[in-house]
Design brief:
about 400 residues, alpha/beta, Rossmann fold, 2 domains, 7-stranded mixed beta sheet, globular, disordered N terminus, methyl salicylate esterase activity
Length: about 400
């Protein structure tokens, strides 16, 4: 505040004046005083706007989690059944005017790669959602994360008219299971496979997997290829047949020394048995996962991330060309990623080339925080790619 006062102080001493009333009318009678007061008011207004924006975003995240708990407890206001492990949301009705969405990223100056756009600006107005093969996105979080990490993406997609389901995998988010008791990939992915199994015949989805969620959607694609229109891997493990997530990291040993430093193994069954879970050192959170993300989202993650079950990371996938191979795949690269470095992402892409690769400039390992608008734009763009 001292710097602010110094900035606006007069350069020459002021002459002593008699007390006067505040000037009314033409501001030209006291230009220096008026300009100074205008600048101070402008600065205060910017501070207030940033403060209000932070409160709105915190309220948005809290509202999403409150809505989940409200539906879980059978609130009378809920209009559809709630599965504890799945957060299902439907687009707003078209009959009422939609409320404009507040900024969902940082209060920092926004880069050209993540411009401040309203959701309706990101959707081609010439494209009707009913003309798409599907407008239903299913978002699958990475290891340790939960459905909560997609709160910005959920809001943007729903505002654009899309249907969105964000899944909490077993032992993640608000799912009640103990992570140390998860012994297989099928057990870990069960909330996702149960959801796809209950979809009506003919209903299709766009699966979006982040981080370890890439291996999870691959597992689901093998089981339900007829219910998956497209699969989008976002800074994710995109494995080949017979490969595990651990194999993927091992093939580029040393590519992420920071990841190795951050891993804290949990031995719930005793030190003489294999690890049951992996914790991440919270002192390395920002550098590893959120090096380009807003501080408020790092704070949200620090109180929300749970241990990663170890057994599913070891499990090798069984993927066939007749099932998994029939699903159209797309990859979104994150060049500022310290968890799955760009060299490792390129290695996976070269081993199993997807239909198309997108480059999300300036994104860290968590683009739903660091580049939410740009990520949303790519998701919508991929949804509109027609069948070849």
């Amino acid at each position: 505040m001292g710097n602010l006062c110094t900035c606006f102080s007069p350069k020459t001493p002021l002459k002593t004046k008699k007390p006067t009333k505040r000037l009314q009318g033409n501001p030209q009678t006291a230009p220096n005083s008026s300009n100074r007061w205008t600048r101070i008011r402008s600065t205060r207004k910017e501070f207030k706007d940033n403060h209000d924006e932070l409160i709105r975003e915190q309220a948005l995240a809290a509202a999403i989690m409150f809505r989940q708990h409200q539906q879980q407890n059978g609130s009378a206001s809920g209009s559809f059944p709630f599965d504890r492990s799945v957060s299902l949301r439907y687009p707003n009705g078209s009959g009422s005017k939609k409320t404009q969405l507040p900024r969902s990223s940082s209060s920092r100056a926004r880069s050209l790669t993540d411009p401040l756009l309203q959701p309706h600006q990101l959707v081609n107005q010439d494209i009707k959602l009913d003309d798409l093969e599907t407008n239903h996105f299913v978002l699958v979080h990475g290891g340790g994360f939960g459905a909560w990490c997609w709160y910005k993406t959920i809001a943007l997609l729903e505002e654009g008219g899309f249907k969105v389901t964000a899944v909490d995998l077993t032992g993640s988010g608000i799912h009640s299971s103990d992570t140390n008791g998860i012994t297989s990939l099928s057990q870990y992915v069960k909330p996702l496979t149960d959801f796809l199994d209950k979809l009506a015949d003919g209903d299709k989805t766009i699966l979006v997997g982040h981080d370890f969620g890439g291996a999870c959607i691959s597992y689901a694609m093998e089981l339900f290829p007829h219910k998956v229109s497209k699969a989008i891997f976002v800074a994710a493990a995109m494995l080949t047949n017979g490969q595990s997530t651990l194999d993927m990291f091992s093939q580029k040993a040393g590519s992420s020394d920071l990841m190795q430093q951050a891993q804290l193994f949990v031995y719930a069954n005793g030190n003489n048995h294999p690890p049951t879970a992996i914790n991440l050192d919270k002192s390395l959170f920002r550098d590893l996962l959120f090096n380009q993300s807003p501080g408020k989202d790092v704070a949200l993650a620090s109180v929300s991330i749970r241990p990663i079950p170890f057994a599913p990371v070891l499990e090798k996938l069984s993927l066939s060309e007749l099932k998994y191979g029939t699903v159209r795949r797309f990859y979104i690269q994150t060049p500022e990623d310290n968890a799955i470095p760009i060299t490792l992402q390129e290695s996976m892409i070269n081993s199993s080339p997807p239909e198309k690769v997108f480059h999300l400039k300036g994104a860290d390992h968590s683009p739903f925080f660091s580049k939410p608008q740009a990520l949303h734009k790519l998701l919508v763009e991929i949804s509109k790619i027609p069948s070849t």
